[in-house]
Fold this protein.
Amino acid sequence: MTRGRRTGQAAALSAALLLIAVAPASAQLTGPTLPANDLEAALALTGGQFLPTAPAALIPHPKLAPVPEARCGPGSEPLEDPIQGRVSAEAVASEQADRGWTCNTTVTGRFDTPGGFRVWRYEDRAGRVCAYYDSSLGSPANLVSLAAAPTQGVVVLDMSDPTKPVRTDTLLTPGMLSPHESLNLNAKRGLLGAATGTALTAPGTLDVYDVSADCRRPVLQSISLSIFGHESGFSPDGNTFWVAGGVGRITAYDVRDPRFPYVVWEGNFYSHGLNFSDDGRTMYQTDTINGNLGILDVSEIQDRRPAPQVRQISRSTWESVSIPQNTVPLTLGGKPFLLEFDEFAFRFNPLTLDDKAGAARLIDITDPARPRIASDLRLEVNMPEVHRQVNGDPFPVPNKALGYGAHYCAAPTQEEPTIVACSFLNSGLRVFDIRDPANPRESAYFVAPPKEGAAPGQEGNFAFSQPAFDVARRDVWYTDATSGLYVLHLDEAAWPERETARCISKRRFTIRLPRAMRRATVRYLGKRAAVRRSKGRLTARIDLRGRPARTVTVKVRGQTRSGRTVTQIRRFKTCRGRTA
């Protein structure tokens, strides 16, 4: 690769950002497609794994349509606009704007320090409950450079009484001052981490705190050098903190001893958010620049093998893609899904401004090599023809490419949730009923007061944050970037109970694979089973304990001694015997 080619791609990305910033509301633009991983290959010259990638596969997608609109019950103060999700200039100028708009939600608590990108809820060993959220979104330090302006750091709140949040600490180490989207919590170990980042990427530090003993007073464990910062991921066991550099690289830090993190792997990937299967052996990685989703085998890193390598299982994209933000692994009806969400309404490569808001979707990953989209989570205002008409509505960052899109989503539990909630920028927080993954519907929303905390001329909702959930209270916590944290109570109809299962499984058993197989991979419920050889035959251990009544699909894929590939599908009842 020539120096001129590398320089050309970097210049093209810079030009893309400039065009997006200055493009008028009426602009429609599609640029040339750049090589998918030129810059990644260049970074490989400085070290780290480079994984050449073929073009992403265009996966099956249902017809693009908005979800059915929420039916707002008694006590709601809904938007009156006929377009679902729209907050017009007339609405912002109305008296109702001072209170915001509610549909099947009630504001029960507030804290007015402006929010950012992520909210986390944690209960410590003593039963105390806390909230953590970053406050850097509106700071020039996040949008321009680290030296531009101070931020208010990461806010620590005692949520023992969620109607009256109390600030108990503010985290001001470098990574917490400007974490961008990297603030992350591992509840299993009680570790809170963040890496210095900006809207592109930035060098800085990875800061790790222990919150397990007293969540109100996090204890700093370490500050380590981090070269590329933007987003992050935590392995489910809490032993690996992954830093994603946006337009840089991914770095995996061993934090088994959080006082002494060290790098166990580096890879050159464009990457936004990172998430993982239950066993930490499969990574779900979103590509910021090329607009796709990678499903990667990271088992060698999880197992701490020497000189570990990452292997690609699949790379997928879809017609409505904008900028893939992150994913949440879910189990719905016993099948593995990803809740994937795109941000904004433009693409980097090819540079595209055409009112195509990515919004969110449920992706069936029963076969991780061949994902398919089950349904979209989008509002009427996210549809291209509608977005084109209303993209001049009030928004703190007035640009057609940024407003009326999605940003972050979350689920109250990864096992059979009935709802998910998503921040939809100037449409506020939106809640979706996903009990039928093929036919989701909107069940509630909250649009914060658009003028509160906003400078003149910058009115509008600024909902960027990942929400958190208090399941027992049926509450959702999220932040607006101008008016702060909100505790929202959802009506029963908006957050339905999970259907009662007939049983909770106690089954754990071993299956035997065909005698001719010399090696095999066994997957079920979105994870890999351990395969071992016993008495000359491969076996796999299947653990269904704690699962409600349903049928579980087990996929066996192996190679015989003659080199032939064999695939088997077996199905088991969690509370009864095998069905097929």
